[in-house]
Structures are given as structure tokens and as C-alpha cells.
Write a structure and sequence with these properties.
34% helix; 6 strands; single chain; alpha+beta; 2 domains
């Protein structure tokens, strides 16, 4: 192992009375491996080994991650040419989901509600700019529940192929009268 004197981890001190120079090397402490490396260096040279902590309190307390605000929840997709809408839910950002819907239309997937609408009305189209987040919901079951309620609420003017999860009529009556239309 080659140690340079201008290395920032190697410091020179003159603390001994006979004015000899003591060289020190600070290595990160990771347990037994660090101790073995330190002992090997001590045996082969006259360098004093110091250990420095890898995890400091400041690094544990600070969070340098950039927080992104994904739009997750129940969304609607408006047809550009008529009042028809598509209601959906996603646990991912709705912009990603919008791209997937546009791919379904482009690839003519028969399971896609928006494609079925376009197939019935060839002059109509859906734009990815027409995605609107109706309600933010990160939890899976409440998101599916709210999607189903929105589909039921807009049943006369949506192009959904499925109704979502089955909800008891008691719950449906209670929730639907308190919901605003999508």
C-alpha cells in the first residue's frame, strides 16, 4: 500500500520529544476488516492508524433525497369531442398511466375503454393533456372504492368497460348522494 504525504488522510505531527515525525492514517471503521487492515499497515510501516466513523449523526439525520410529489389516486380522462369520460385509478403517477392509455389506443387494445369509444366514434380522440386527478388516494382499497363510486356516479356518460369493485347497495346509496360528479 502506497501512502502519499500530501494525502489528506495522512497527517504529520511532531509530538515526540526526540523530534521524530509521526505519520498517521485515518481509515474508515467498518469492524473486523478495518482492524485487520490497520494491523497489517502497522506491521509493515511506521504509520500510526486512526479509525474514523463511517456513519455520523449528521449523515443519519439529514435526508438529501429529493421528494417528488406523484399524482396518485382516482383520475378521469375526457374525450376531446364529447362529454364521455373514462374513470380510472392508479397507484403510480397519472402521467405514466396516461402514456399507457395512449399506447392502448395506438395499439388498438380491445380491453381499453377509451379505445372502444374511439372505435365506436372514429372522429373522437383522447388527449394525454385531458387527464385530471379527481381525488388523491395512496391507499389501495380506498382508491379502488372511490374509483368504483365515481364510475357509478358517471355511469350514463363514461366509457369504462368494468365497474370496478363490487360495492354493497347500502354503501353506494349513502356515498353517492354526498359525492360531487366527476
Amino acid at each position: 500500500m502506497k501512502i502519499l504525504l500530501n494525502d489528506p488522510n495522512v497527517t504529520q505531527r511532531s509530538q515526540r520529544q526526540d523530534s521524530e515525525i509521526i505519520r498517521q492514517l485515518a481509515i474508515p471503521y467498518t469492524g473486523k476488516v478495518s482492524i485487520a487492515i490497520g494491523q497489517a499497515i502497522r506491521r509493515t510501516s511506521d504509520i500510526e492508524i486512526c479509525y474514523r466513523p463511517v456513519n455520523k449523526i449528521s449523515t443519519m439525520l439529514s435526508n438529501n433525497k429529493q421528494i417528488t410529489k406523484d399524482q396518485i389516486g382516482v383520475y378521469k380522462l375526457n374525450c376531446n369531442d364529447c362529454p364521455m369520460i373514462y374513470i380510472g385509478e392508479s397507484g403510480r403517477d397519472i402521467h405514466i398511466r396516461a402514456k399507457e392509455h395512449m399506447n392502448d389506443i395506438r395499439l388498438a387494445k380491445p380491453t381499453s375503454g377509451p379505445f372502444s369509444h374511439i372505435q365506436e366514434f372514429p372522429s373522437h380522440y383522447f388527449s394525454p393533456n385531458n387527464f385530471v386527478l379527481l381525488e388523491e388516494e395512496r391507499r389501495r382499497f380506498p382508491r379502488k372504492f372511490k374509483e368504483s363510486l365515481q364510475i357509478l356516479k358517471s355511469s350514463h356518460y363514461n366509457c369504462n368497460k368494468e365497474e370496478g369493485i363490487r360495492i354493497s347497495p347500502i354503501w353506494t346509496a349513502l356515498w353517492l348522494k354526498n359525492m360531487k360528479p366527476p
